[in-house]
Amino acid sequence: MLTFPVTKGPGMGTITELASDERRARIALACMTEPGDAVTSGLVGKVGAVATVGLLDSHAVLPGLSPVESGPSRLPPMGLTFDAVAGELPLVQRVWSASCDAATSFTSAAKGSSMIAFARTCDRLTVHLRGPETRATQLICPEGWEFFGVELQLGAYLPLFPPSGLADLNDALLPTLSGDRILLDNRDWEMPTEQNVDVFVNRLVRAGLLIFDPLVDEIRHGERPRAMSERTAQIRFRRAVGISRRKLVSIEQAQHAAQLLAAGGSIADVVTVGGYYDQPQLARAMRWATGHTPGELRSGIPFVAF
Fold first, then answer.
1. Which CATH class name applies to 245-305?
2. What digits encode the pLDDT tens for the residues 222-234?
3. Domain boundaries, the chain
C-alpha cells in the first residue's frame, strides 16, 4: 500500500476531503495505488473505500509502513531486507537501512530509543522523528520503498521535539524543500544519504538541536545525584527518553527475552534468565512487546524489528 502526500493549491482540499463518497474514493484509490494492490483491496473490503482513503492520507507512521490488523490476512514476510551497523558517533546507537522488494508484513517491537528516519519511493523522500514504542505494532512495507535512519543513544533527543510527544508512532514529519533540503529550526539543511547520515547528525549536535542528558544512564540504573529528588529524576528521565524508567526497564527486559527465544532458548530457561515469575507472565510480555507468543518466536518468525 503506497501513501502519498497531498499538495494543496488554492481552493483545494485533501484527498480525504475530496473523496466524500464511495465512487470518488475508488477513483482516488486508483490514482494513489498500484493496479491489483492486494493490501488496498483488502482494506476496501473491510472498511470501505472512503475509510481506506482516510488511512492512506494519514501520516501517523512512516509513509509506506502502514499499520494492519494481526491475523491470517498478514502478508508473508519475504521481501524485506534489513541491515544495521553500530553507530560511530557518541549519540548514535546504530545506523540502519531497509528495503522492500515485495509487499511485506512485519512486527515493529516495543523499543525505548528514539530515531531519525528517512523514507524514499520514486522521487519522494520524507523525514521523520520517531519516539519510543511502548507496544508492538504490525506494519506493512509495500514494494519499492527504501528506508534508512539512525537510532539514537538513550538520553539523546531534539528539544524542539520532545520524545514523549513522538511516542507510539506519533511521528513529527519535517518539511522538505526543493533541491533535497530539510527545514528544521527555520533553517534549511542538506538531505543526508545512508552513507553520510552521521555527518547530518554531527551538524545537529554542533547546532545544539540534538543534545544528550548524561544523567539518564545513572537514573536508568536507579542512581541519581544526592541533591536531586526522586520526582525530579523521574521528570528529567521522561523528558529525555519519552517514557518512564519503569516502562523502559520492562521494554528492555522483554527485548532480551524475545531475543533469547528467537535464538532457540527454551521457554522455561527464558522465564528464569529473563526474570519473569512464570510462563504466563512471559507470554503476556511477549504479546505486548513483540506481538507474538514465546512459541512463535522460538519457531522462527522471519523478521521482528527490535
1. mainly alpha
2. 888 888 999 999 9
3. 1-58, 80-212, 245-305
